[in-house]
Write a structure and sequence with these properties.
Number of helices of chain A: 7
Radius of gyration of chain B: 32 Å
Largest interface: A-B, 36 and 31 residues
Number of strands of chain B: 4
Number of helices of chain B: 9
Helix content of chain B: 55-70%
Bound molecules: adenosine-5'-triphosphate, magnesium ion
Oligomer: heterodimer
Strand order of the largest sheet of chain B: 2-3-1-4
Strand content of chain B: 5-15%
Distance between the termini of chain B: 18 Å
Radius of gyration of chain A: 17 Å
Strand order of the largest sheet of chain A: 6-7-8-3-9-10
Distance between the termini of chain A: 18 Å
Chain lengths: 219, 313
């Protein structure tokens, strides 16, 4: 589903943050992406999400050579990917419900066709009571859950999550991990970037470890 | 981004998905409406004035070009009345001339009244006699032949077909129309520039929204459409205000002209600008100009939207 060949990345004229990445993400797989702060986890996720292009090497996503994609292709591919960013990126002028429903709304779907689905998911992540609240009044953990709900609502083929449990207590962290696992069972490939050892210990999965720009894989 | 905070009512469970994707308040709308309104007003006023001038000019021209004037001056040893009658007969015999009118001594004097005042004994003055001949419109007149025959019979007669004057008029009207078109072009350019700036500003203010929309897989077309709605509304509002104001100004001055008609000032104006009224088609043209400016606003913002979107990852 995803294949990296000799991929390198640098910002501007800086040093290479990522070097000689060679790996594949099979469909239906589940993996943690870890490494010390500043190792390049977020950068690697952005490469996968097409919001960064590699400075060298080949990235192949869903069978497409990324360097050949136009903007409309990128938009179409992103509808198949869910992403949870470290800074959440919720829209402050929209309710939690509207934020979570956004992936459906931008594809032009009728609101009535997905209302129940969105409400059910919001209840599942514990935001049933906060549906009509605006993000500025949500706690950090609530924002995080809203961002996760927005990423998974469309049942993407690939889910990218950047520190998805950074702002929640361990109990809720476990609950969110279960959400990812459930999603994975229904066919979504999941990549969770984290340096939360506790979280990784809770679920037996492949580990991609970034260290000094290189990727080491522990199956 | 705009924080609506507590102002926004908490929605009941059924009515959802009400917020616009791009909040209206995030676009500096009022300034843009004002700019578009002013531009529309200027464009419509220019168009209206050009229409007025060219309509009056056309009126004068058709009045004047359907006439030739023969002037018979008093000469020594000649009877002015007889000369005038001879000249009139020659004119009548000319094909293409339908009606000949000889101004009598008193009428000729009356024409001179504004310059000479009343109560002057005309017997003391060698007042020339004026003969006005109406020409069938559209038929070519053998002016040279007429002139030859006239001067042969009446040496002091001169023929004026106002051609030089009409030419001058025509070039003046042409210049006015050109100037009007120039002003219109400038207004359009200024509109495009201001709208592009406003659009770019709105996009910059809403960049976080655009990024999130990109993240959830919205296409550029979808995002541009969300912004475009706002700009279309702003353009239409501006066009309505500016165009409405211009139409009001023309309607108002028309009624002023009606109030003043009969007074010397009103008559001067009427002489200069005809009736000072736009025909219904003129008002339609003003509406057309307003629509044009609104359309240009929409197009300019759309172009800027796509250009800006291409630059936001
Ligand atoms: N836009 C950017 N421009 C320049 N350098 C950047 C940019 N984004 C990240 N970097 C640099 O790239 C390196 C990797 O950053 P990245 O955010 O990918 O690390 P990370 O593994 O996600 O760290 P953390 O665990 O703290 O989130 C860092 O040294 C960072 O300073
Ligand atoms: Mg990071």
């Amino acid at each position: 589903m995803v294949r990296f060949e000799n991929v390198g990345l640098r910002y501007g004229l800086g040093p290479e943050i990522l070097r000689d990445l060679n790996f594949a993400i099979p469909a239906h797989s589940f993996q943690f992406l870890t490494g010390p702060s500043g190792a390049g986890k977020t950068s690697l996720l952005r490469l996968l999400f097409l919001s960064l292009r590699p400075t060298r090497g080949l990235v192949n996503l869903f069978g497409n050579d990324v360097s050949l994609l136009g903007k409309d292709d990128v938009a179409a591919l992103r509808q198949r990917i869910g992403i949870v960013l470290q800074d959440f990126r919720l829209l402050d002028h929209m309710t939690t419900y509207e934020n979570v429903a956004l992936p459906f709304r931008v594809t032009g779907r009728e609101e009535s066709s997905y209302r129940k689905e969105v409400i059910d998911l919001l209840k599942w992540v514990g935001l049933g009571e906060r549906m009509d609240a605006l993000p500025p009044v949500l706690s950090g953990g609530e924002k995080q859950r809203a961002a996760i709900a927005r990423a998974v609502i469309g049942r993407p083929q690939l889910l990218l999550a950047d520190e998805p449990t950074g702002n929640v207590d361990p109990t809720l962290g476990r609950r969110l991990l279960r959400l990812f696992v459930e999603l994975n069972k229904t066919g979504t490939a999941v990549i969770i970037a984290t340096h939360d050892i506790n979280l990784m210990d809770q679920y037996e999965a492949r580990r991609l470890v970034l260290h000094q720009g290189r990727l080491h894989i522990y199956e | 981004m705009v924080d609506l905070g507590n102002e926004r009512p908490q929605l009941p469970a059924r009515a959802r998905n009400q917020s616009p994707i791009v909040p209206r308040a995030s676009i500096a709308g009022r300034a843009l409406v004002a700019v578009v309104a002013i531009m529309t007003f200027l464009a419509a006023m220019t168009t209206g004035v050009v229409l007025l001038i060219s309509a009056s000019a056309a009126e004068w021209q058709s009045d004047v070009s359907s006439e030739i004037t023969i002037q018979v001056r008093a000469a020594q040893n000649r009877d002015l009345d007889r000369d005038a009658a001879t000249a009139a007969d020659i004119a009548r015999a000319q094909s293409g001339i339908v009606e000949v009118r000889v101004f009598s001594k008193e009428e000729s004097a009356k024409l001179l009244e504004p310059w000479l005042g009343t109560g002057l004994s005309l017997d003391d003055l060698p007042v020339p006699r004026v003969i006005v001949a109406r020409v069938t419109p559209g038929t070519p007149l053998d002016l040279a032949g007429l002139r030859g025959r006239l001067t042969a019979a009446v040496p002091s007669a001169t023929v004026d077909d106002h051609r030089a004057w009409i030419e001058r008029m025509r070039s003046m009207t042409g210049a006015t129309v050109l100037a009007g078109l120039g002003v219109l072009a400038l207004v359009i350019v200024a509109t495009v520039i201001s709208v592009s700036f406003a659009t770019r500003g709105a996009m910059a203010a809403n960049k976080p929204i655009v990024e999130v929309l990109h993240f959830v897989g919205a296409s550029d077309r979808y995002i541009a459409d969300r912004f475009f709605r706002h700009f279309l509304m702003l353009g239409l509002q501006g066009g309505l205000i500016g165009g409405g104001a211009a139409i009001f100004v023309f309607g108002f001055s028309e009624s002023i002209a009606t109030w003043f008609s009969g007074t010397p000032v009103g008559d001067q104006f009427a002489a200069l600008l005809g009736t000072f009224s736009l025909r219904p088609t003129g008002y339609l043209t003003l509406v057309g100009v307003a629509v044009l400016i609104a359309a240009i606003t929409a197009l300019a913002s759309r172009r800027t939207l796509f250009a800006t979107l291409a630059a936001i990852e």
